[in-house]
Amino acid sequence: MKVATISALIGSTAAFPGLLNLGGDGKLLDLSGLSDLSVLELNQQKTKNNTYPAADPKNCPFNHDHKPAAKWNPDFPYSHAKNGLPGNGKGGYQVPMPGDEDHKFIAPGKNDIRGPCPGMNMLANHGFIARDGITNFQESVDACQNVFNMNWDLATVITLIALVLGDGDVLSQKFSIGCDATSRTAAVELIAGSQPGLNGHGNFEVDASMSRDDYFLAEGDAFTLNVTLFAQMVETTGGQFTQSGISSLKHQRWHQSQQENPNFFFGPIGLISYAASAFLPELYGDGKSASTETVATFFGVHQQDDGSWIYGHNESIPEGWTSRKEPYGLVGVVENFLKMYLEKPVLFGGNTADGHFDGLDFGAIKDGKIDAAISVDDTLCLVYQLLLWPVPGLLNGVLDIGTDALELVTSTLGSTLTDLGCPAPVNAS
Ligand code: HEM
Ligand SMILES: *[C@@H]1O[C@H](CO)[C@@H](O)[C@H](O)[C@H]1NC(C)=O
Ligand SMILES: *[C@@H]1O[C@H](CO)[C@@H](O)[C@H](O)[C@H]1NC(C)=O
Ligand SMILES: *[C@@H]1O[C@H](CO)[C@@H](O)[C@H](O)[C@H]1NC(C)=O
Question: Which of 7, 69, 120, 148 is the most interior residue, by most CB within 10 Å?
Fold first, then answer.
């Protein structure tokens, strides 16, 4: 991953204010919507200073006994997903399957890594990915299919996002589901930079999450579940997690962050975080809604007699839970995202130093907005561009895609997304 710094970019584009020339090949990323890049610059500086203990790699747990997830076992076949390849797409069975000891719940130990994603934390607690929280492409893609009957295309794209945006390593295909474990994820010793894991703020992890604080509002802890926010999730959705309820919640969280967080940034990757909220009804629930009880168990929280919630750090699969029958893939999640987003749209962009909010341009996002008439295919292209275009990320400046990442994406996905006629990748270097 090649990371261009914002200040270097600003310096090189004096002649074209708002347009960043990446790589000198004449291809420009249009950031003209962002009239003031100071928020990006300040955030970048702040992270470089690395003053938050929560984000310090030295405080990242280290389990010297890394055990990969158990190999696929024909006695407990789930949807037959193995080796990172597509399974049979058939769900509707109980998870874990009765008698499957490899996948029983075990609470994480003090040397195990957990992070901002309730889904990955749960998969690690059940051993569908390595229990120490250092996982890889194959484990992640198999687990999403076997446990949730997520379609291969969606499982692959979200896993690639973690690798390609710099949370993990595109050569080893490993990533940490939480804090910076570069010594264990990097294929070769890194000369500069690090692999921050899913905690890495502004890569995949973004502001205005449902259950996690914003990075700069919580001294770098944007990964631990906040029970006040969980209570808000239940209240705003009315305790039934439907698409419409979640749309209200995401809209509310966006405005809350925009007001409270001077460093608020909701870049193009916000789209992925937003779309993941559709997993509540679609993957945890029956496709229409998910109950508070189900969501609470998956999120590892428990209600006390006085109504308050406690976080037990024990994300798990509810007793007797069954996976959805039909696979849930890229087209499904994009359709859900559009429906939820367009019901109560929010802007893509960030707060500026003088307290204004600036919208940005990225693919079909213009001036921070997605047009209500956008097609599903054009939205899929946005996802594709997130993988293959330089993405204005928060902390690392603009995330630029190197050839290793490009090669991984194109060799893995083949024509899955190029068939749609999406604009070609820019600036592969
Ligand atoms: C395949 C690999 C996956 C990766 C790399 C991944 C990564 C992430 C990351 C980095 C976040 C934080 C986004 C933010 O800051 O808002 C997140 C959020 C989330 N993920 Fe995952 N995820 C994966 C799979 C799953 C699965 C299988 C599920 C459940 C079915 C899931 C459910 C969620 C939910 C519900 C959130 C939102 C949490 C919130 O807003 O508080 N994820 N994921
Ligand atoms: C980062 O550290 C430098 C040197 O200590 C300091 O001058 C600067 O103000 C810090 N920046 C931020 C945003 O904290
Ligand atoms: C949890 O979220 C609430 C509401 O945003 C906030 O006031 C509180 O400081 C957060 N608590 C922690 C421990 O981060
Ligand atoms: C998780 O922890 C809570 C509180 O400590 C406890 O009540 C609950 O039974 C635990 N759940 C599992 C699956 O271990």
Answer: 120
Residue 213: pLDDT above 50? yes
- Is 105 a pocket residue for ligand 4 (Cβ < 6 Å)? yes
Question: How far is the centre of ligand 4, averaged over its atoms, from the C-alpha of 113 (Å)?
Answer: 18
Ligand 1 atom 35, closest CA: 277
Closest Cα to atom 11, ligand 3: which residue? 226
* Contacts of 304 by beta carbon, 8 Å cutoff, 6+ apart: 310
- 422 Cα–ligand 4 center, Å: 46
| Amino acid of residue 148 | F
The answer to whether residue 24 scores a pLDDT higher than 70 is no
Nearest by Cα to 197 from 63, 323, 55: 55
In angstroms, the CA 246 to CA 250 distance is 6
DSSP one-letter code for 282: I
Residues 94-114 pLDDT 10s: 999 999 999 999 999 999 999
Q: What ligand has the least distance to the C-alpha of 219?
A: 3
The CB of 298 under 6 Å from ligand 1? The reply is no
CATH number given to 6-418: 1.10.489.10
Token pair in block for residue 182: 């570069």
